[in-house]
Design a protein that fits this description.
Elements: H1 22-37, E1 58-64, H2 70-81, E2 86-88, E3 97-104, H3 111-115, E4 119-127, E5 129-131, E6 140-143, H4 150-156, E7 162-166, E8 175-176, E9 179-180, H5 181-186, E10 196-210, E11 213-220, H6 226-236, E12 241-251, E13 254-255, E14 260-261, H7 262-265, E15 291-293, H8 296-303, E16 308-309, E17 326-332, E18 335-343, E19 346-352
Parallel strand pairs: 1-14, 3-12, 15-17
Antiparallel strand pairs: 1-3, 2-3, 4-11, 4-12, 5-6, 7-10, 8-9, 10-11, 12-13, 16-19, 17-18, 18-19
């Protein structure tokens, strides 16, 4: 399946600045540490087993080849770097190629923000055959001799742009009554999936190699299935079709220029692991989020969980910011200190990265 829907291997949600249970957990951790120091066996009931591997933090952008799944890519890269912790920022199925961001260590906490970013794809739609997976890996389920003209294709594209409703492929990771849709489909009981909202910013015909195939460029938001776009467009022009090739060109702030080949970081035999210098900084994942400049005093208020009226930031709100639920990077003195949400006329702290000390106005007496 040419996978394109974005699902993190390990999903991490944003945290509010205050956690009223944090003190209890920290106290419990200290007690456990003391118990472990009193002769407890390492890794035993009260001990702490040391994680295996190197504690690496950062992003590695792999140009995934066709014929390998996303989880296998992560496993190979994790072994190559001997890393303690790794996950990916959006699944690509085996047939697909292109950008697969791999997060190491604390970078896994920024996966949700990468997932929310814009994705860009090129795909080839082959007319004349419908397949059960909606891509070239599936079995043929219907055929048609009709081939649309370029004009007919372009006339059908606008209905798939903007905010649309989309039925996911039967072979997808969506859960139905606790089971993955693709597991049910493989058992011969493909579920009937309901339409879901999706945002498509760009959907253009860019090449027509022959009457059987057409190549498209797509830019979309989170959770858009390219296989569904191809299937539905073919139906809209009176025929059937499936994705023959799919390549992902962008995931949020990550571009092809950031990518390295899987072979270049795969070690064999006694070769040393690849250099950590290949990793991009953790905060690279947030580069697409507009920046809001604040004072030290404002940063301190936000860091302690206080909402601040947008009125106080008049003239400083970045042009690209969404005032109804959009995120901004909070920057003070050129330093990233946290993330905040703009909503209901307020700047609301969403996830804080650096704890500030209270700042009081000073007056001369």
């Amino acid at each position: 399946m040419a996978g394109e829907h974005q699902e993190p291997q390990r999903e991490t949600h944003g945290e509010r600045p205050h956690d009223r249970h944090a003190g209890d957990r920290q106290a419990g951790d200290r007690q456990a540490d003391r118990r472990g120091q009193k002769g407890g066996r390492p890794g035993g009931r009260h001990g702490h087993r040391k994680p295996k591997g190197r504690p690496l933090d950062g992003w590695l952008i792999i140009d995934k080849p066709s014929g390998i799944g996303s989880t296998e890519v992560v496993n190979r890269v994790k072994r190559a770097f001997n890393a303690q912790k790794a996950g990916h920022g959006g699944t690509l199925d085996p047939l697909a190629t292109g950008l697969l961001p791999v997060a190491f260590g604390s970078a896994t906490k920024t996966v949700p923000y990468v997932m929310d970013g814009t994705k860009a794809y090129h795909f080839t739609l082959r007319f004349g055959e419908a397949r059960d997976t909606d891509d070239a890996d599936g079995q043929v389920t219907a055929t048609s001799d009709l081939r649309p003209t370029d004009e007919e294709i372009r006339a059908a594209l606008p209905q798939f742009r903007g905010e649309i409703m989309q039925v996911p492929p039967a072979y997808s990771a969506i859960k139905v009554d606790g089971q993955r849709a693709y597991d049910l489909a493989r058992e011969g009981a493909a579920p009937v999936l309901m339409p879901r909202p999706a945002r498509v910013d760009k959907f253009e015909l860019i090449d027509r190699p022959d009457t059987d195939t057409a190549i498209f460029a797509v830019e979309s938001g989170k959770g858009v299935y390219m296989r569904s776009l191809a299937r539905d467009l073919a139906r809209a022009v009176g025929t059937v079709g499936h994705i023959a090739t799919l390549r992902r060109l962008r995931v949020g702030p990550f571009r092809e220029s950031h990518a390295v080949s899987l072979d270049s970081v795969t070690v064999t035999g006694d070769a040393p692991p690849p250099s950590p210098d290949l990793l991009l900084p953790v905060m690279t994942a947030l580069a697409d989020i507009p920046a809001l400049a604040v004072t030290e005093a404002e940063a301190a208020r936000l860091s302690f969980g206080q909402d601040i009226s947008l009125v106080e930031f008049m003239g400083r709100v970045p042009d690209g910011a969404n005032l109804e639920g959009g995120l901004v990077r909070v920057v003070t003195g050129g330093r990233l200190v946290g993330l905040a949400m703009l909503k209901d006329g307020l700047v609301r702290p969403e996830r804080w990265l650096i704890r500030s000390e209270p700042v009081h106005d000073q007056t001369e007496g």
